[in-house]
Amino acid sequence: MIMTLKTLSKIALVTFVSATVVACASKPKEEPVAPMPEPVPTPAPMPEAAPTPAPVAPVGVIPGSQQDFVVNVGDRVYFDLDQSGLREDAKALLDAQAAWLVRYPAVKIRIEGNADERGTREYNFALGARRAESVSQYLTQKGVVPARISTISYGKENPLDTTASEEGWAKNRNAKTTLTEGAQ
Prior knowledge:
By secondary structure, this protein is α+β, with helices and mostly antiparallel strands.
């Protein structure tokens, strides 16, 4: 088979056109890729709130209260028969009272002097007054402002113990310190 020059030219032309068409053909457009949605952050779990503690009532003795004074210091000193002078055990307790009263300067007190049932009513009122005054002077010497102190005598009218015995009478020969103002 002999190809003619004309046939070869046609084949070359067809090849050229085909190659050109293929070369000029547009490339397929790439489809736009939809952007991936960003992951939605998962909120961190909320920490559980700690339960609110229930209010707690004060336990024990409240500092600066009448109970604090009575329990931690002592509110009463005792005297010997027909005496208004302070015994050594009374001075130790009154030192503690003075320190407590200096710590709480808003507190005012009343010293209540008492006597046992023996003796006349007048004698026992006078003895109770001397006992209250003796305690007042001692506390003043220890730094308690005199304006914070008042005194009263109950004589034999306010006994702690109504037993007619030496033990009962000893309890009734006393001076009691009562907080009248400014305590917690």
